[in-house]
C-alpha cells in the first residue's frame, strides 16, 4: 500500500511578521501600554503574544499584576485594548508597499502562476486595512474575518475556516507563520506548516526558513514531497 501526498492546492498566510513586519509595531504599542501601567515587557515576553488576539494579549500582560489582573473590570480592559490599538494604528498609518517583506510578492506571483489558491488567516482586525495599504489584497481568494472565529490561535479554527473559504481540504494546504501559536494552529488543522524565523522557537513546524526571502514554491514543494516519501516508507516498513 502506498500513500501519495495529495497535491498542494492552497497557501494560507499569517500577516504580521510574514507578509509585513508589523510585529515590530505591535511590540511598540504593547510596550507603551505596559510602561504606562508599570508592568514589565520585553522582546522575550512579546514572543508569547505573537499570533494571539488583542484581548488575550492584554490578559497575558495583566497577568503579571499582583492579583493576576483579576481586579480589573471588563470596561477597563476594553479601554486599554482600544488605547493599544489606537497607538498601533498610528504606527501603521504610513505603511505602504515598500514594507512588504522580501520575497513575498514574488511568492504570490509564483502561486498564482501555478494556479494555487491564497488565503489569509490573521488574528488581526487591522489585517484587511494593511493588505490594502500594501496593495496585495487582490492576490487573496479568501480573507478570514477574525471576529467570526470562536477560538483564536493556537486553536486551529482560523486555518480551518480559511481552507473552507478556499474550498480546499486542509491536507492540501500549506500554512505560513512566524509565531509558535500559529504553527500549533496550522498543525492542529492538519496542514503542512512552514515557519519563518527562529527554528528553535518554531520547532513544531515541518520546515523553517530564517526569513521570507527564502520562501519559494520550489523549495516548499521539495520539502512537502519528502514528507510524502517518509509517509510511504513508514507504511512500507522501509
Ligand atoms: O490588535 P489586532 O490588530 O487585531 O491584532 C491582533 C493580533 O494579531 C496577530 O497577527 C499579531 O501577531 C498579534 O501580535 C496581535 O495582537
Ligand atoms: Mg505573525
At a glance:
The protein has 238 residues and is of the alpha/beta class.
Describe what you observe in this structure.
The chain is an alpha/beta fold and 238 residues long. The protein has two domains: 10-21 and 97-236, Rossmann fold (3-Layer(aba) Sandwich), CATH 3.40.50; 23-92, DNA polymerase, domain 1, CATH 1.10.150.240. It has nine helices and six strands. The chain has a six-stranded parallel beta sheet with strand order 3-2-1-4-5-6, with helices on both faces. Helix 8 (180-188) links the parallel strand 4 (173-177) and strand 5. 6-O-phosphono-beta-D-glucopyranose (BG6) binds at residues 15-16, 26, 49-54, 57, 85, 122-126, 179. The record marks 122, 153 as: Important for catalytic activity and assists the phosphoryl transfer reaction to Asp8 by balancing charge and orienting the reacting groups. Belongs to the HAD-like hydrolase superfamily. CbbY/CbbZ/Gph/YieH family. Mg(2+) binds at residues 14, 16, 177-178. This is Beta-phosphoglucomutase.
Q: Domain count, please report it.
A: 2
Strand content: 5-15%
Q: Judging from the principal axes of the Cα atoms, what is the shape?
A: globular
Number of helices: 9
Give a short account of the largest sheet: 6 strands, parallel
CATH topology group of the largest domain:
Rossmann fold
Give a list of the ligands: 6-O-phosphono-beta-D-glucopyranose, magnesium ion
Give the overall average pLDDT.
Answer: 93
Please report the first level of CATH classification, the CATH class of the largest domain. Answer: Alpha Beta
Strand order, sheet with most strands: 3-2-1-4-5-6
Total beta strand runs: 6
Distance between the termini: 12 Å
What is the ordering of alpha helices and beta strands? EHHHHHEHEHEHEEH
CATH homology superfamily name of the largest domain? HAD superfamily/HAD-like
Q: Kindly state the percentage of residues in helix.
A: 40-55%
- Based on CA atoms alone, the radius of gyration comes out at 19 Å
